[in-house]
Write a structure and sequence with these properties.
41% of the residues lie in helices and 16% in strands. By secondary structure, the chain is α/β, with parallel strands linked by helices. The strands form three sheets. Strands 1, 2, 3, 4, 5, 8, 9, 10, 11, 12, 13, 14, 15 and 16 form a 14-stranded mixed sheet that branches. Strands 19-18-17-20 form a four-stranded parallel sheet, sandwiched between helices. The protein has a two-stranded antiparallel sheet with strand order 6-7. It is globular and about 90 Å long.
């Protein structure tokens, strides 16, 4: 037996906060050593934080990373343990996303990332160059101060692996695992047994299974130990990195970390037998044949042993059942942890939420309530960092700290019902009851006086006073009055968030929470600069269908029973339809014509081509009319693959010809053709029924006939 103990981790890094990041890195190394591990893997770009974005273009960022690495190497942090650190490195005039592998106070090699993530939320090609020289390792000249401090002038740089006396280890960085020809396939044929994947992977609903299947697939048919590390938390932007550090051996998960957590550092350790890897590979004939004629990959020889021989007192890690959260749990825990990171790092004293009693704002309130429960639970489990943050944010004194989530919520969470003469008692009551269940400090405010004052000002300026439609006003007047009410709620929310802490003799300010969902954003079913305009929004990328299921779950599992029967009417098109439109538009990259064709397959058994045409045109009309609203959308937790968020994920124009004349004309032509086909088939069927033989005949598309959108 060759026994190897490896350690990986989830780290809650913060972009550009080098002190925070170094504290977490050092803590992870200490825990790895305490566990007896000889390999420690950290997340991608862990020294700087993954989300530095254009800060990567600053030389300061790269220089600070080198200073931090020097600090780690001059201390005893790498003594007796192979550590992989993620940081940016400049070679010549190019900047690379690198893993720096270090052992015994020396840099063993620098491995630049070869395939960069450059879609969806990722823009790595904006900041980094992909390494393309696969044939050989190059000598990298270390910066002068690093060279002098380490007494090391050059280091191998490029694609390759480290050959120890008893095993071979290589890095595979994040996106490379998911590329068409991943490096681990070639590395396995060259004898590499341990793969270290440093990642910066964000949470998305129902995504974790895809990631784990990739780790399992990498080692199931080739053998190997796949070690995965990820960031966990909000590092300064819209993304929540969802951890789940894990270790996979020959296709079996033997260690798995949490997906959602308030911890800054979480370690995952496993002891594995590398002879099991060699045994599996030796039993696969095709592996043996391909290995015998493999392309050679460069390596760095290190005269050092990592493995231990067989010892009865050293137990092996056994396969585990993979842990998955339900989508409802993901909605509760992901945004809840993201909100906690944002709160403790922003300097705010709490949150303020305009609580209407509707499904969306109630979902946000429930997520904040879940956050408070997570904080109290983590404190009871002994997490001193969470405890210190909660004491500071909640302004506890005399040794007190949160022990009850409702009491903690009352200190850090304001909810406000902003009613008008048109508000119902039912929504007012629902808001009040939910606030009591969560524990928030609840206010009930009438905005009629503010709206009346604005209307009087308008009348003084123009000589006219607009009326609601029910009072005889026009559509223009009615819409204008509704917008005034909506925008007054935004102004009042920010005023209360700024001044209520002062009223209650608290320092700081409150963050205003928004509560529009992804489907309403896609449709534009919101007022620009209303309560959807806030500091942050935890549900802005979550669909209405998922929120409805979450509310039913939260009523039971979070103890907020008033959520059980909460629902809302649709808005001219159903939320189910909006989810289909959103996925076709974004995930399947459909324009109006392609969407129409796909929906003919999906809905062709229940709707005519003309009816489908009307639905597609209606969606694209309002989507394009309202696209400008996405440019000012409140920064939202990213959770859904069809988010219309304009900042970085869904980049499109915001001024459209909303008539779509060319595309809609093409749809009309298709409808005419399909209607003609239907008439011909009907006539043919009638003739056959009457006993007449018909030659030829034209067919129509059928639902689910192999089109990829049939599963949308």
């Amino acid at each position: 037996m060759r026994l190897l103990k490896v350690a990986t981790c989830n780290l809650n890094q913060w972009a550009m906060d080098f002190d925070c990041n170094m504290k977490n890195i050092k803590e992870s190394i200490c825990r790895a050593k305490e566990a007896g591990a000889v390999i420690r893997l950290g997340p991608e770009l862990e020294i700087t934080g993954y989300g530095c974005e254009d800060h990567f273009m600053e030389l300061d960022t790269v220089n600070h990373a080198w200073d931090c690495l020097k600090e780690l190497l001059l201390g005893d942090w790498t003594d007796g343990i192979l550590c992989s650190f993620g940081m940016p490195v400049i070679k010549g005039s190019e900047r690379y996303n690198c893993q720096v592998l270090c052992l015994n106070r020396k840099i063993v090699m620098i491995r630049p990332k070869m395939w960069l993530a450059n879609d969806g939320n990722y823009r790595e090609l904006r900041w980094f160059t992909a390494w393309k020289q696969k044939e050989h390792l190059e000598d990298f000249l270390l910066p002068n101060d690093i060279s002098e401090a380490l007494s090391q002038t050059t280091v191998p740089f490029g694609y390759g692996y480290i050959q120890f006396l008893d095993t071979a280890v290589a890095a595979e960085v994040c996106e490379e695992l998911f590329s068409p020809i991943p490096p681990h396939a070639e590395l396995a044929l060259n004898g590499v047994e341990v793969y270290l994947n440093a990642s910066g992977s964000h949470h998305q609903l129902r995504k974790l299974d895809l990631r784990l299947r990739a780790f399992i697939g990498a080692t199931h048919t080739r053998g190997g130990v796949y070690v995965y590390s990820n960031q966990q938390g909000c590092d300064g932007g819209r993304l929540y990195y969802d951890g789940c550090a894990c270790i996979v051996v020959n296709g079996d998960v033997v260690a798995q970390g949490s997906q959602f957590s308030l911890k800054d550092v979480e370690m995952v350790v496993a002891q594995v037998d590398l002879d099991a890897v060699a045994s599996l590979r030796g039993s696969i004939s095709s592996f043996q044949e391909q290995a015998s004629c493999k392309p050679k990959v460069s390596s760095v020889a290190v005269p050092y042993k990592l493995c231990q021989p067989f010892k009865l007192q050293m137990s092996l890690s056994s396969p585990l059942k993979i842990q998955y959260h339900s989508p409802e749990e993901e909605i509760a825990f992901g945004p809840g942890c993201w909100l906690w990171d944002y709160l403790r790092r922003s300097g705010a004293s709490g949150f303020l939420l305009p609580l209407s009693g509707g499904a969306d704002s109630s979902s946000v309130a429930a997520i904040v309530g879940c956050m408070c429960q997570l904080v109290v639970n983590e404190i009871s489990n002994g997490d001193e960092q969470v405890k210190a943050d909660a004491i500071r944010i909640g302004h506890y004194t005399d040794g007190q700290f949160p022990t009850d989530s409702k009491e903690f919520a009352r200190r850090i969470f304001y909810t406000v019902f902003m009613g008008s003469e048109n508000s119902s008692n039912a929504t007012r009551t629902r808001a009040k009851v939910l606030a009591e269940e969560i524990g928030s400090w609840h206010l009930d405010v009438s905005i009629d006086g503010v709206v009346s004052a604005l209307l009087s000002l308008f009348q003084t300026l123009t000589g006219k006073r607009p009326r609601y439609k029910v009072d005889g006003g026009s559509n223009i007047e009615n819409l204008g009055l509704q917008n005034i009410q909506a925008r007054m709620r935004m102004v009042l929310a920010f005023m209360l968030a700024s001044l209520l802490p002062w009223v209650h003799s608290k320092p700081g300010f409150y963050l205003v929470l928004g509560s529009s969902n992804v489907d309403e954003g896609l449709r534009g079913y919101l007022t620009k600069y209303d309560c959807s305009s806030a500091d942050i929004n935890p549900i802005g990328s979550i669909s209405k269908q998922d929120l409805r299921r979450f509310l039913r779950w939260a009523a039971v599992h979070l103890g907020y029973s008033s959520l059980a029967e909460l629902d809302e009417v649709d808005m001219g098109m159903t939320y189910e339809e909006l989810s289909v439109y959103g996925r076709l538009r974004k995930i399947f990259r459909c324009g109006p014509v392609s969407m129409f064709k796909n929906l003919c397959y999906k809905w062709g058994t229940k709707l005519t081509p003309s009816e489908i045409s009307d639905k597609v045109k209606y969606f694209f009309k309002y989507y394009s009319i309202n696209r400008h609203k996405m440019t000012v959308l409140t920064p939202s937790y990213h959770a859904e693959s069809y988010s219309p968020e304009d900042n970085r994920f869904d980049l499109r124009q915001f001024l459209y010809n909303a008539r779509w004349p060319y595309q809609f004309r093409k749809i009309d032509e298709l409808v005419q053709q399909l209607d003609g086909d239907r008439v011909a088939i009907t006539k043919s069927t009638a003739q056959e029924t009457a006993g007449v033989t018909v030659d030829g005949g034209m067919g129509v598309v059928a639902a689910g006939s192999g089109n990829p959108s049939a599963g949308v």
